[in-house]
Amino acid sequence: MSICYDRLWKLLIDKKMNKTELKEASGISFNVLARLGKNEPVSFETIEKICFTLNCNIEDVIEIKRNTDNESAKSKYTTIELFAGAGGLALGIEKAGFETLGLVEFDKDAADSLKINRPNWRVINDDIANISCLDLEEYFGLKKGELDLLSGGAPCQAFSYAGKRLGLEDARGTLFYHYATFLQKLQPKMFLFENVRGLLTHDKGRTYTTITNIFEQAGYSIQKKVLNAWDYGVPQKRERLITIGIRKDLLDCVTFAFPKEHDYKPVLRDVLLDCPEGPGVPYGESKRKIFELVPPGGYWRDIDPKIAKEYMKSCWDMEGGRTGILRRMSLDEPSLTVLTSPSQKQTERCHPLEARPFTVRENARCQTFPDDWQFCGNVHSQYKQVGNAVPVNLAYDIAIEIHRSLEAIK
Q1: GO MF annotations for this entry (predicted)?
Q2: Which domains does the chain have, with CATH numbers?
Q3: Which of 4, 51, 56, 156 is catalytic?
Q4: Is 133 considered catalytic here?
C-alpha cells in the first residue's frame, strides 16, 4: 500500500493555487509540504488543515494505492557509502529507493548516530584504510560489478604528485585513495562523489584532474556539476561539486541527467518558526548584547561604528566587506552554509528572532534532516556532524536521477 497526493495537486491547479500559497493559507510547514511532494505520510491534522483551506473532503486530496505484485517483488538497488558522517547523503539515497549494504565512518559519534537512527544498517566504525585493503567482495558479500552505487565524499588533501603521473599512485596517502580503491575493486554500476566546490580549482585544477583521471582509468565515464542546495528544496545556500560516474560498459543503455531546479526556494521562515527544541551553545553576555543591536538581515555595518570597531578589533582594518562578521539572518532569506561550529567570528549566523546561534536542531532543519533524526555525542560533536552533512533533500534529488538511470539496465 502507498499514499499518493496527485488528487491534491490537481485540485490546486483547478483552484489556480500554487504549493506556496497552500502552505501559507493552511499553516503547514515547509517540511510537511516536502513530505507531501514525495508521497510520504503526514498527520491527520495536516490533512484536515488542507481540506479546510480548500473546502474539500479527504478523498479529494489523498489516495491509497495498492502496489502491484511486480512492484512488491522488485528488488531495491544497492549502495555502499564511504565517509558517511551522520547520514545526510545516506538518508537521501535511502529515500530514493536504495538498500544500504554498508557505511564506513571513522568518527565514533557520527557512527553512533547512524546506528541509533538505522539499527538495520551495517555501520562500520573503523579507519577506511583498514577496510579498503580487504577482499571487498567477500567482506560485503558481493560479486565484482554487482553493486549498483558507491557513494561518499572523501576529504581531498593535496596530492603529493598531483599533475605528474595522474594515476592512482598520485592519490596514495590521501583519503581519496581509499575511495578509488573501493571503486576499482567493486566496480559498481555507478558512483556518486561529492565534495566542496573549491576542489575544482585546488592546486590550479590539478587535484581534480588527477581525481577524474583515476575515475576514468577505473573504467568510468564521468559528469560533474556544481549544485546549490537552495535550488533543491533546502533552505540554505550551499554549493557542492557533484561528480557522477557510469561504468563504461553500461554507456549504451545508461544515461544520467542532473536534477532540475525546484520552482520554490525555501527560506528560514519555512523551517524555524515551528522547529522543536534542541541543544545549543549561547553567546556570552557581551556578545549577546551586541547582537541585539543588529537587525535581522544585517551585519556590523548596521550598528554604531564605535561598538563594531571595538568588537572587530584587527578585523576592522581588513579589506573586503567582511559581511560574515556580526551577521544576523533574516526569516525571509535562506541560511548561509551551515558550519561545524555555532560561532565563528568571521562567519557568524545569528538567529533572526533571538540573539543566539542556531541550535543543533535548527541547523538540522536547514540541512533538511527529519526532526526524529538523532545525533549522538556532546553538543559540539552534534554541531560538527550536522555541519559536515550533505543536505538530505539535495541527496534525494540526485539519488532519484541515479535510480532512473539504473532502471535502464535490463
Answers
A1: DNA (cytosine-5-)-methyltransferase activity; DNA binding
A2: 2-65 (1.10.260.40), 75-264+390-406 (3.40.50.150), 274-388 (3.90.120.10)
A3: 156
A4: no
